[in-house]
Amino acid sequence: LLGQILDHWFESEPLKATLATDAVIGAMASPHTPGSGYVLLHHVMGELEGRRGAWGYVAGGMGALSQAIAHAATARGAHIFAEKAVCRVLLGRDGEVQGVMLQDGTEVRSKLVLSNASPQITFLELIPQEQLPKDFVQRIRQVDTRSPVTKINVAVDRLPSFLAAPNARNGQPLPHHQCSIHLNCEGTQLLHQAFIEATHGRPSSRPMIELCIPSALDPGLAPPGCHVVSLFTQYTPSVLAGGRSWDEQARNAYADTVFDCIEDYAPGFKASIIGRDVLTPSDLERIFGLPGGNIFHGGMSLDQLYFARPAPSYSGYRSPIPGLYLCGSGAHPGGGVMGAAGRNAAQVAIKDFRHL
Known about the structure:
Elements: H1 2-9, H2 13-24, H3 36-42, E1 47-48, E2 51-52, H4 62-74, E3 86-91, E4 97-102, E5 107-109, E6 113-115, H5 119-124, H6 134-142, E7 150-156, E8 181-183, H7 188-199, E9 208-212, E10 227-234, H8 248-265, H9 269-272, E11 273-279, H10 281-288, E12 324-326, H11 340-353
Parallel strand pairs: 6-12
Antiparallel strand pairs: 1-2, 3-4, 4-5, 7-10, 7-11, 8-9, 9-10
Helix pairs in contact: 1-2, 2-3, 2-7
């Protein structure tokens, strides 16, 4: 249990609760859920510029990271086709990969196919089910993809000023504006209560909020004096109580709850808002293909990790289809902006390609 780990090392309840957010982020779980301690450890995997477990902002926004990967690939002869949806994987008579078909009918022939889509899309939508082992299909269908996350992007006309650390008179960003700011995290019990509400189909009345202001470090993201604020919030159930879906009214009501909470910490925040984009779990699934809105393509629980990710006997990136590899967050070791799954999958694919 995460709570036992934190109680062993720390005394301060606000510190324990703030650390606990990294154990439940993206997970329909509470700090009291068995196995939650793993997700906390997962967040310190890897390194940044030689510093183990460090995090950082991407200059130019997260899209700049995708562009950097794209530039590295094209420099080595890769061809990238954006906005070209794949509708199915092409298979030969012996069930081996022969390429992919695009929605416009174009066939792209290849001896290897690496899928960065979720296991659900890869194996349940792009492959004929009769080509896969029944127990494998059942396992993929059973993956827990519940997600508590609603992402809110906000444009503001001035820097938020927090009661705990008011802004400087010149309005310039202070050190805390350049960090990750955790709200409603005064105690782990608050996080647990927010989780319990969501399990009953209700968005948390006092949601966990992780707030960052990337424009405080990267001014090019917003006009002079203005800022972009990224809010990672939970808990919001995928389906609301009574089977209701997230309509515009429910979406706006939850966003207002989040903004009311921020207002308590930083008076004037609501008045500074000039634009907002609210992405509920259903929006994250529809727009980005995240199953259930889950940012990790599936829960990072102990029964869905290591040799069991995405399914027992298939944690080595190869799939039941010869020549088809899984290289995204649904593969080992899971989600996060670290590229481990992709790097490992590429190495396996290269090894196999040499024998074709």
